Each structure stands twice: as structure tokens, then as C-alpha cells.
Amino acid sequence: MPRSSFRVLYSDIGGVLGTNGWDTDIRLRICDKFGVDTVEAERRHRLMFDSYERGFTTFEDYLNYVFFYTERPFTLEAVREFTYAQSVPWFENMDFVRRFRTANGLKLGLISNEGAGITQHRVVKFGLRELADFMVISHFVHFRKPDPEIWKLALDLAGCTVEESIYIDDRPMFVQVARDLGFTSIHHISLETTRRDLHDLGLQTES
Fold first, then answer.
1. Measured between alpha carbons, how far is 168 from 166 in angstroms, rounded to an integer?
2. In CATH, which superfamily holds the domain spanning 24-85?
């Protein structure tokens, strides 16, 4: 039985449960490793990324437009595999979330902005199917944070209200948007700060 009025814990993936799947740092590493012009790659990224992360283009098409607009001495497969290798799960954080949701009788939903290809890789590598009850990923649902609809869809899937929900994210703006929607929102800075914030809500943080 739940120990409080909360029924569902929602969490971001990148920055909370592991490294990001795709960000500026990863693109810079790709440009450095493969000798790609950073300015042009970032310009093309800005034009393509929203469509990719909302699920309207594949990872391969995205890479083709951003990196392979000209002949290259390396392959798309090499860039894709390099990208996948950058995803590192934080097992201590995931173990805490697993124990926390069990100790407090909560469902766990993941809400994440991630594109096709990278998501499927990370779901397997991080063991997210075994961790979460359900996932709301931008490329599947065609919404992305900070669209309010992505949080509303997550509530509908769990059959709960914002008053019964906790949301954790490492990005302050997304924490604020969720809070404005009525969620009890926690800005994830470290495992210890998140543990403390959850404890301050009157929840069991040790098991």
C-alpha cells in the first residue's frame, strides 16, 4: 500500500538515470573524432533536431543531413556506434529509484525527450523495461518537453492526478513547467539532493 498520497513517480532518463543520449557534448566529440566542421554540423542540427526528436525522421536520416551532406572517409554506422557508446547508465541512481518506488508503493513512469534509434539502444542498455511501468518518449508520442501535453499524456497512462505525482528532472526549466502544471517537482542535482528532497516529502528513502 502507498505510504502517502503519492501514487506515481515520474522521472527523466538522461541526467537522472544515466548520461544523455544526444547532446551538444556528444556532437562535439563526434566532430572531433571524425574531423567534422562543428559550426556547420550545429547549424544543420538546429534545423533537423526538432523533427527528429518528435519522431518524424529516423536517426539515420538525421545523421545523413547533419554529418553526411558531403562525402566522408567514415561511415554512418561508425558514427551511430560511437554515439551509442556514449550512453552510460548510472546504476546507483537506478537502484535507488527501484528501491524507492517499491518502498513507497509507487508506479514509475519515464518521460524523456529522445529520438528513434538512440531510445531503443538505451532501453536495452539501461534495462528500462525492467525498471519502469511505462515510458513516454518524445519520438513515440510526437510531443517533447516542454510541451505540456507530454506530461498530461503520462498522467492519463497512469490514471492519476498531478496531486498524486512526483516529477524528477535535471533541467530546471522542465522542473518548473511540471510544477506549473501541478506536479510536485524535484530538480535532480545529485543522488543525495534528490534523496533528501524525497525524504522531505515524508517518503521512505531507505530500504
1. 7
2. Putative phosphatase; domain 2 (1.10.150.240)
